[in-house]
Structure to design on (1881 residues):
């Protein structure tokens, strides 16, 4: 709750100070604000900081529910945004005029994300998604005079709004059949007549799944993400790949968990093929990929596939294995590694520069530390112990095996094998290929810090996953 | 066959017609006009459904603001000169087929499941529904729906800023 | 004294280590002295133990050193067994070994590998002693393989020559084939008796027999004995595994004398005699042994007829003589086998060393056709060689006569046919041996002029051992004077203790040794000697005035001259197929299928990636279509849920 | 009001069919057209179809939630259109066309 | 006292920073010293070790309590033998690099020490998850060593290596997770809990293959050995040595510790297959070794053969087979390291591994010819070398299980002699050619390496008793766990 308020205030402030040309203030202001918000959310979670909560609570008629799920994911989102936004200078320094707008819009995006992970009414879900999407349509196109950026923006916009059309239809059908928009109502209706669900309702669930699948870029609704990731400015790509994906998957999980859990039986049958398809397409397509941003996009798709396992094998009662915990951990692991990877890309190739893998050639000689950092992140993404990525995978696989979803587990294993190849190719480029000259290496203290934090957390989270796992127990 | 049914069917026919024209006309300008027409039909439907407030909003926001915006852009970019880009026949067939299929499947679904709990609806409608009235809507809007209402303002803000950022030539 | 038995193998080991480690430092004479000295040392110790043994009633003592392998219920000690049999072997090994060492000091004097040679020889003596002294089959096997290794090293001693290396390799591998049989036999023994110690094995075997658990020819016994015999066939160069021995002549002559005549090749005979109890329990195996022995004796003898390489002739004669020993064992006359083993050790070593001396004199010439009339230049060698030849041909009163005659007599007692064949064999022996002798020493020298110019008698270091061996092969017969001379059969009395188990078995099946009537024996001797003498004269008539002749022409001659093409046969049916199969494995299974699998999988993955990414056309319209199709599919699916 | 009570003579199904049809038309339009603006309009048709559905449901079950949702949808739609048109304008500025087929540089 | 286990595992890791502190030219020395200290620690453990079946120096702390994952490690006879092998070979491996040009020497040795940590961890871990982590940790630095310091074809080859092994270990991971969920809630990865699960025959069969494939690929067993020859040829020497010396043994250890006692019925149902694979492997690999042109490949194939026999003997499931298997694992570690090091010396001088190009080296390098011969003897299992003891016990075990398997496997000792002597003849003997006439004999450090290995070869060959006694009780217990199941059936 405080998250929403502080974020909106922060956004407005940045906007205004942008208007009044206090550009130098913007970055510190934003970061400080985010830190503050983060602390506040955490405090609120632990019940220490309740001021804003009390302020709003009376007006919150079951629109948002701030359970530990919401807090955990909001915290995660805020933290990632903090990391990504610390890289902003790469974006800002190339169009200085819109610095204020840039920050404010991103902050609003974060707000949308927070709404998405804490909604308990489909209205809020819809609004949250739209805030997120609309802001991102803009940010994707924020480099106005370059073709890729434009193209990315338009594609994202058209496909996104088309998808939200379906999402809406789904919501409408659900509403029509269940007569409710709030999760408790829906779930009570569905669990009441889970056996004889009117087909319209099934159709609605289907449409909603489709809409969410689009947001998490699950096949066959994934096509937007590679193009948009490639076209968008790298910082924004990083933001989309981490914050947005996390928010989307969390919202998806919250939705399924909160409303449709009763009929898990059949949408499992529907989702597991999607999950398999997603990870397979993502991995296989990435194998022959020369562009690092696209590569990460495809890897993002495959990871979405893994994450879907957490939803397919929906478990919430087991003390030590619940989907929320698994997905929380996995998104954390995935996002940390990805942010670091993008940060390295920013350092190596700049915000707009050529993002082909060859940009990393000979990085080990140019900047060994950077190379090692990226290697660790790639290993984590590939799921090599003892890094965070491995434990996340273990957690999800364990869920699947626990539920006896053998086919899913088999495909997951197979895919995590395939996946290794392209991560390692990048690594090999860094260490074995000779560097070709003329590549800008615009390092910055911020990026160094971000990379360091990500790498360290990746290792620590891998060695001691206990904490994260326990959060949602 | 009561009066309302005739009205409904007429409006339905018109709105469908409008929609189809929007989709099929060659020139953007025309499709805009057809779209406005469709929107008006839908507004009328709202009236029949006793949702006056929405009907008005529909007219103001959609038929008014949004469509004007469209027109404005079309004029600004002078898009009308370039007629709709030629489409391969295959595309048309494919589009029609998939659209039709979607329709078929969904409608079949409705038929299959009888209806979305109609009987309750009818029961409700013996006593006239007044929820569509501004007063009622307003109450619930500012009571239960306060937060979405506020949040959506953020949406507006960011959309506005975004539009400015993108649209402004600098 | 008996407790010092461990010194016997220790000395040679020390010698090996000294000569091996300091081979570059030590002066040649020094190395030679050490090499021979250590062997002489163990010879002395052996003699000491020997006389002690003669005096003491205890017929067999086991001297444990330490536990070697223990796993579960399996345990094998490193311990020596001293009884008459092992003592006899030890005496031969160390005694003859010592003489050959001395000889080698002269023979190898100009070789740059001199010191290495002595270290190898010592190592061989060490392993040979392990072989004969070990108190269980495992230790026997240790020596068994160890001597194989040494023979490998020594055959390939002149490693520059690849033929020699091939010969060495062949020797080792063929032996390995036998060893495999032996190994499995050993495993079977352990599985049957739960131990590998001679004593326990034999006792249990007899016990099981007497308790009626087994009859004669029980499957297990036959299996064990045959498997062990496979090992013996390999080691002692019997049919079908004899082919390595002739090639083994590639090694320096002392090696041939020591390893491939006197000691190592007789290990098989030793092993059979050692396990006489088991063989007694499996007469079928004995029959096999007999057949193989006779066959080898004849077969090798015939090949010997037409060989022109002096050492090859001797090699085949060795094979044939080993056949005699096995034949002896086959008819149950183990002692006769040991007897012949002993005398053979003397005269065959003598012959080899003699030939070595000849070769030495001729500067490496080994072809009989280029020799002749050497008695003029090298009298000592001539005399000693003559004695050796007479001995091997079985002319009384030389040692060979007694041992061979005993075998023949036993064969006659056992089965007339066997006797006849063996007699024929001995005639052949006499013939080719004297062919060799005449071609070498009589007539006129057929070599080149400058060879003739260099001809000389060998130095004392060479001739003295020759004489020593000559004396031994002359008087060796006293060990086993036939009964009809009313003298005690020394060897019999000496070896009797090791037959206790055998005798017990025989007694319980009511078998009694039927001795030939004296007149029969006289008759046999008469026949044999007469025939042999006749053969010798024939040989003299043929070869005294020998002229160089070209390659043989008649089919039979050619066949024999080319050793019945056995090597070629093996090459065709074993070596080539193996190589072909290996090539197939390598170039088809491995390279194509197993490697191919991984390669193809990888390529497949990449290729599918390359194609699949074209779904991502970049066209928004396509994406929209894909989405809609996806929705439609989902909806359709929902109908079936 | 009398006409209201007689509203029951219109089965809810009719509205469902109608809006589904509208929605399908919108989808078809999206698939059919290559002109970004028309695409946008078709999407608007889809949204309106959904709105109609919402209103029908809410009216028949006498529950304001649906209509309020429609209100929010309209708001969102407005915002979406604003941004969308801005994007289209931007595109046109750089490409002198709003044909989405032109924008296929990002692929594979 | 129990901390000694932790120290054993993490000392190498702890000593990595030292490599980055000392001067560049002392890095190798530092690494060498660290490995020596580790060896001393191991010897200390041996001195403290009691000859009892139970695990000693047990270390058991929660790692991820909520998931029942604990840091549980301990040493029993089996572990001890393997740990000894690892820590004995490590100094040798480091020393083998002493006189070589080495790029990136710091990272190189850091990775080597890291591997050591992982190896020891694998051998002492008693928690399935921990075991798996170490298992993978051993793979990664191995991969990097081969990739960054490897030869020309390293990139595809290392990929092959990585995928082969990782496939195996992932399948294994699935099996482990399944076992984990079979344990009574709250589930645990503790091996003790795995021991007393009662699983149906089908489960056990599947689990058997799940686990066994993982280990078989590591061993490697025919027909999943495809990665080994290439990796051996492309990896840098130390990589090869670590691989042949220790890594392959992880598979054997895994079979003994994680397959036999956990899925006895699966073993009972499928052991014939395992043995058959092993025996086929012997013949197959030996035959290929005969016609091998590349010296390193030849040794690689010989490894496949020997380890095939080892697996066959282990699955005979009697004390002799198990003892032989463990001992042979140890022996093969030493012998193959020796042979590969010879190959490395030759490559270092001649820059070729093609047997055809070599020959007559003995004239130039008597010392090496002797060491090579001794290693060769160990490899062809001549009595009084380590190989003989191991193989004899293996044959003994296998024979008690089935005669015909033994007979076929026995052909291996003939073929072994064939290819080894062939290679020795063609590499060392004969006339020296233009290339080999420049050969220079071994340096001091190389002599030390080979000397240490040779000493081990004969020490075990003549006095195998200590190792056998150490391992006996633990193996007997594992065997007992298996047989008790049979009697229970």
């Amino acid at each position: 709750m405080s998250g929403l308020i502080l974020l909106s205030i922060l956004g407005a402030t940045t906007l205004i100070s942008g208007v009044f040309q206090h550009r130098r203030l913007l970055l510190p202001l934003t970061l400080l604000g985010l830190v503050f918000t983060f602390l506040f959310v955490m405090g609120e979670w632990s019940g220490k900081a309740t001021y804003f909560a009390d302020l709003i609570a009376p007006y919150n008629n079951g629109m948002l529910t701030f359970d530990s799920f919401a807090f955990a994911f909001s915290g995660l989102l805020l933290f990632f945004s903090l990391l990504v936004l610390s890289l902003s200078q790469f974006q800002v320094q190339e169009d200085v005029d819109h610095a204020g707008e840039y920050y404010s819009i991103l902050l609003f995006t974060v707000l949308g994300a927070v709404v998405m992970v804490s909604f308990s009414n489909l209205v809020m879900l819809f609004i949250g998604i739209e805030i997120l999407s609309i802001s991102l349509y803009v940010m994707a196109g924020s480099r106005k005079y370059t073709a890729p950026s434009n193209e990315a923006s338009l594609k994202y916009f058209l496909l996104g709004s088309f998808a939200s059309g379906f999402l809406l239809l789904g919501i409408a059908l659900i509403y029509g059949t269940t007569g409710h928009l709030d999760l408790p109502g829906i779930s009570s209706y569905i669990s009441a007549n889970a056996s004889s669900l009117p087909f319209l309702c099934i159709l609605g669930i289907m449409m909603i799944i489709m809409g969410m699948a689009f947001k998490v870029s699950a096949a066959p609704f994934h096509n937007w993400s590679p193009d948009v990731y490639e076209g968008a400015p790298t910082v924004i790509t990083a933001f989309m790949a981490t914050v947005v994906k996390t928010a989307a998957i969390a919202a998806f999980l919250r939705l399924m968990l909160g409303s449709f859990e009763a009929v898990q039986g059949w949408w499992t049958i529907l989702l597991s093929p999607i999950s398999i398809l997603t990870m397979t397409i993502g991995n296989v397509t990435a194998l022959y990929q020369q562009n690092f941003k696209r590569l990460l996009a495809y890897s993002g798709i495959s990871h979405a596939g893994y994450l879907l396992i957490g939803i397919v094998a929906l478990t919430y009662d087991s003390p030590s294995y619940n989907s929320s915990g698994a997905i929380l951990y996995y998104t954390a692991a995935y996002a940390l590694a990805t942010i670091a990877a993008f940060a390295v890309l920013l350092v190596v190739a700049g915000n707009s520069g050529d993002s082909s893998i060859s940009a990393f050639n000979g990085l080990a000689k140019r900047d060994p530390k950077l190379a090692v950092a990226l290697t660790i992140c790639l290993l984590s993404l590939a799921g090599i112990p003892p890094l965070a990525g491995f434990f996340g995978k273990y957690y999800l696989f364990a869920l699947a095996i626990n539920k006896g979803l053998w086919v899913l587990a088999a495909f997951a294993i197979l895919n995590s094998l395939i996946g290794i190849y392209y991560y390692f190719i990048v690594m090999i480029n860094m260490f074995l290929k000779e560097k070709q000259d003329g590549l800008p290496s615009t390092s910055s203290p911020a990026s160094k810090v971000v990379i360091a934090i990500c790498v360290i957390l990746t290792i620590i989270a891998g060695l001691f996953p206990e904490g994260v796992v326990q959060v949602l127990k | 066959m009561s009066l309302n049914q005739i009205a409904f069917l007429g409006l339905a026919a018109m709105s469908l017609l409008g929609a189809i024209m929007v989709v099929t006309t060659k020139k953007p300008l025309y499709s805009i006009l057809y779209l406005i027409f469709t929107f008006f039909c839908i507004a009328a439907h709202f009236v029949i459904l006793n949702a006056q407030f929405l009907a008005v909003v529909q007219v103001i926001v959609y038929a008014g603001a949004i469509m004007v915006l469209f027109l404005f852009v079309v004029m600004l970019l002078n898009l009308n000169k370039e007629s709709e880009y030629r489409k391969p026949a295959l595309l048309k067939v494919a589009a029609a087929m998939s659209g039709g299929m979607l329709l078929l499947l969904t409608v079949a679904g409705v038929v299959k499941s009888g209806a979305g709990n109609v009987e309750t609806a009818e029961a409700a409608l013996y006593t006239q529904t007044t929820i569509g009235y501004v007063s009622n809507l307003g109450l619930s809007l500012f009571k239960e729906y306060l937060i979405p209402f506020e949040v959506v303002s953020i949406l507006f803000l960011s959309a506005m800023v975004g539009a400015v950022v993108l649209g402004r030539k600098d | 004294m008996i407790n010092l038995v461990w010194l016997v193998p220790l000395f040679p080991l020390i010698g090996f280590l000294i000569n091996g480690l300091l081979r570059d430092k030590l002066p040649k004479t020094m190395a030679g002295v050490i090499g021979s000295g250590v062997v002489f040392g163990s010879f002395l110790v052996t003699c000491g133990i020997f006389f002690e043994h003669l005096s003491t009633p205890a017929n067999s003592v086991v001297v444990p050193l330490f536990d070697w392998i223990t796993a579960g219920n399996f345990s094998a000690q490193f311990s020596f067994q001293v009884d008459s049999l092992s003592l006899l072997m030890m005496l031969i090994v160390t005694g003859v070994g010592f003489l050959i060492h001395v000889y080698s000091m002269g023979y190898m004097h100009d070789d740059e590998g001199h010191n290495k040679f002595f270290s190898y020889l010592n190592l061989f003596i060490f392993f040979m002693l392990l072989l004969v002294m070990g108190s269980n089959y495992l230790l026997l096997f240790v020596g068994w393989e160890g001597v194989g290794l040494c023979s490998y090293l020594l055959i390939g001693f002149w490693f520059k020559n690849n033929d020699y290396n091939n010969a060495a390799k062949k020797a080792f591998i063929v032996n390995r084939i036998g060893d495999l049989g032996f190994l499995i036999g050993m495993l079977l023994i352990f599985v049957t008796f739960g131990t590998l110690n001679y004593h326990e094995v034999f006792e249990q075997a007899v016990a099981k027999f007497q308790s009626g658990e087994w009859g004669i020819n029980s499957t297990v016994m036959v299996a064990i004995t045959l498997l062990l015999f496979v090992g013996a066939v390999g080691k002692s160069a019997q049919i079908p595994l004899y082919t390595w021995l002739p090639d083994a002549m590639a090694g320096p002559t002392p090696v041939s004398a020591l390893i491939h005549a006197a000691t190592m090749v007789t290990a098989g005979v030793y092993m059979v005699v050692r396990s006489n109890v088991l063989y007694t329990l499996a007469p079928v195996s004995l029959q096999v042994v007999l057949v193989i022995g006779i066959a080898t004796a004849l077969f090798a003898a015939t090949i010997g007829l037409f060989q022109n390489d002096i050492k090859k002739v001797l090699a085949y004669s060795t094979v044939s003589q080993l056949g005699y020993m096995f034949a002896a064992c086959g008819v149950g006359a183990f002692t006769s086998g040991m007897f012949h083993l002993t005398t053979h050790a003397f005269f065959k070593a003598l012959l080899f060393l003699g030939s070595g001396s000849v070769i030495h004199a001729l500067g490496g010439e080994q072809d009989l056709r280029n020799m002749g009339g050497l008695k003029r230049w090298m009298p000592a060698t001539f005399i000693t060689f003559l004695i050796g030849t007479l001995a091997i041909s079985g002319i009384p009163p030389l040692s060979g006569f007694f041992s061979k005659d005993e075998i023949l007599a036993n064969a006659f007692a056992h089965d007339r046919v066997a006797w006849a064949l063996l007699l024929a064999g001995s005639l052949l022996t006499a013939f080719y041996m004297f062919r060799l002798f005449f071609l070498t020493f009589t007539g006129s020298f057929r070599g080149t002029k400058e060879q003739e110019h260099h001809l000389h008698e060998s130095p004392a270091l060479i001739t003295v051992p020759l004489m020593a061996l000559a004396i031994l092969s002359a008087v060796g017969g006293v060990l086993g004077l036939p009964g009809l001379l009313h003298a005690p059969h020394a060897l019999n009395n000496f070896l009797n203790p090791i037959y206790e188990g055998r005798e017990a078995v025989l007694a319980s099946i009511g078998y009694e040794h039927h001795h030939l009537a004296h007149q029969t024996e006289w008759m046999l001797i008469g026949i044999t000697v007469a025939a042999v003498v006749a053969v010798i004269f024939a040989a003299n008539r043929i070869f005294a005035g020998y002229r160089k002749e070209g390659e043989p022409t008649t089919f039979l001659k050619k066949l024999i001259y080319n050793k019945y093409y056995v090597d070629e046969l093996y090459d065709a049916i074993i070596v080539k197929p193996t190589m072909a199969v290996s090539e197939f494995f390598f170039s088809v299974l491995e390279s194509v299928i197993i490697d191919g699998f991984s390669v193809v999988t990888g390529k497949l993955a990449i290729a599918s990636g390359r194609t699949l990414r074209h779904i991502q056309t970049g066209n928004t319209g396509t994406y929209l279509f894909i989405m809609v199709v996806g929705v439609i599919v989902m909806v359709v699916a929902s109908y079936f849920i | 009001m009398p006409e209201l009570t007689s509203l029951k003579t219109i089965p809810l199904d009719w509205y469902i069919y109608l809006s589904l049809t509208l929605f399908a038309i919108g989808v078809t339009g999206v698939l059919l057209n290559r002109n970004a603006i028309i695409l946008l309009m078709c999407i608007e048709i889809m949204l309106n179809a959904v709105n109609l559905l919402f209103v029908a449901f809410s009216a028949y079950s006498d529950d304001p939630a649906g209509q309020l949702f429609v209100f929010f949808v309209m708001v969102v739609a407005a915002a979406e259109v604003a941004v969308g048109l801005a994007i289209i304008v931007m595109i046109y500025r750089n490409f002198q066309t709003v044909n989405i087929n032109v924008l296929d540089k990002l692929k594979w | 006292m129990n901390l000694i286990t932790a120290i054993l595992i993490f000392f190498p890791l702890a000593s990595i920073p030292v490599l980055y502190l000392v001067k560049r030219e002392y890095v190798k020395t530092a690494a060498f010293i660290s490995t020596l200290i580790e060896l001393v620690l191991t010897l200390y453990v041996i001195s403290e070790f009691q000859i009892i079946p139970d695990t000693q120096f047990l270390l058991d702390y929660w790692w991820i309590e909520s998931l029942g994952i604990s840091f549980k490690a301990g040493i029993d006879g089996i572990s001890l033998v393997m740990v000894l092998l690892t820590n004995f070979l490590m100094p040798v491996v480091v020393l083998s690099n002493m006189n070589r040009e080495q790029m990136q020497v710091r990272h190189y040795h850091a990775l080597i020490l890291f591997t050591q940590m992982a190896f020891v961890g694998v051998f002492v871990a008693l928690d399935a998850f921990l075991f798996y982590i170490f298992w993978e940790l051993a793979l990664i630095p191995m991969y990097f060593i081969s990739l960054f310091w490897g030869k020309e074809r390293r990139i595809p080859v290392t990929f092959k290596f990585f995928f082969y092994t990782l496939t195996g270990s992932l399948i294994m991971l699935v099996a482990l997770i399944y076992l984990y969920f079979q344990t009574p809630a709250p589930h645990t990865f503790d091996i003790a809990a795995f021991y007393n699960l009662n699983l149906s025959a089908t489960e056990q069969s599947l689990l058997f293959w799940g686990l066994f494939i993982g280990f078989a690929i590591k061993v490697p067993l025919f027909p999943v050995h495809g990665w080994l020859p290439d990796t051996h040829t492309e990896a840098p020497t130390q990589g090869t040595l670590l691989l042949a010396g220790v890594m392959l043994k992880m598979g054997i250890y895994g079979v003994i510790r994680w397959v036999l006692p956990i899925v006895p019925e699966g073993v009972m149902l499928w052991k014939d297959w395992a043995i058959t694979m092993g025996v086929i492997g012997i013949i197959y690999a030996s035959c290929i070794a005969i016609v091998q042109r590349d010296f390193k490949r030849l040794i690689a194939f010989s490894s496949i053969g020997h380890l095939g026999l080892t697996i066959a003997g282990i699955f005979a499931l009697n004390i002799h087979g198990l003892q032989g298997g463990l001992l042979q694992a140890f022996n093969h570690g030493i012998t193959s390291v020796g042979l590969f090091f010879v190959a490395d010396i030759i490559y270092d001088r001649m820059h070729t591994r093609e047997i055809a190009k070599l020959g007559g080296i003995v004239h130039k390098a008597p010392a090496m010819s002797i060491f090579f011969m001794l290693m060769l003897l160990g490899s062809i299992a001549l009595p009084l070398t380590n190989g003989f003891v191991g193989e004899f016990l293996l044959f003994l075990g296998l024979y008690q299980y089935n005669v015909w398997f033994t007979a076929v496997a026995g052909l291996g000792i003939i073929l072994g002699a064939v290819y080894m002597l062939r290679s020795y003849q063609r590499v060392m003997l004969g006339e020296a050619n233009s290339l080999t006439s420049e050969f220079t004999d071994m340096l001091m450090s190389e002599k030390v390496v080979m000397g240490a290995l040779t000493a081990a070869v004969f020490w075990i060959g003549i006095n195998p008793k200590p190792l056998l006694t150490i391992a006996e009780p633990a193996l007997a217990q594992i065997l007992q766990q298996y047989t008790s199941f049979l009697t229970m059936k």
Remarks:
- Residues 217 and 223 of chain A are 8 Å apart (CA to CA).
